[in-house]
Amino acid sequence: MLWPSPVDTDSRGLLNRILRELHERGVPSFVDYSFVEFAANIAMFVPLGFLLAVVLGPRRWWLAFFITIALSASIELYQFVALPHRYATVRDVVANSGGGALGALLAALVISLARIRRPPRPPRFPGPGDPTAHIRI
């Protein structure tokens, strides 16, 4: 993410050869270098969005989306300002944010399913020393 030179410098030729082979075997031509880069930017932020949503919990999981937008925009701004051999793009912010959103949504789904499958808690009866022991229902 924050390497001083493009991260794909050494692998770009290999990726282009793999893509040519895939195209010869029927993979659609829209699956090109740009497509793979965009998909990689999405995939890179899915785990981050997932983990943030889990840490934030069931009530604030949606904040993970905004955190990933801020983080991605910060990374791109840093690239623009401090790394002259890197390219800062809005497209990367969109891809990274999309990945963060996918991860957060996946975490929300997992959290919801875990809550549905959890057996109900037994009723809590106040014991001695419980400040709610005097409340009668």
Describe this entry's structure for a reader.
This protein has four helices and no strands. By secondary structure, the protein is mostly helical. The protein has helices spanning 12-24, 33-56, 63-82, 90-117. The protein starts with 11 loop residues before the first helix and ends in a 20-residue tail after the last helix. The model has no long low-confidence stretch (mean pLDDT 83). The protein has a domain at 38-117.
The major pleated sheet works out as: none
* Estimated share of beta-strand residues: under 5%
Low-confidence parts: none
The percent range for helix content is 55-70%
What's the overall geometry?
A: elongated
Query: What is Rg?
Result: 23 Å
Write down the secondary-structure element order: HHHH
The total strand number stands at: 0
Helix run count: 4
In whole angstroms, the N-to-C terminal distance is 58 Å
Average of pLDDT: 83
Give the structural class.
mainly alpha
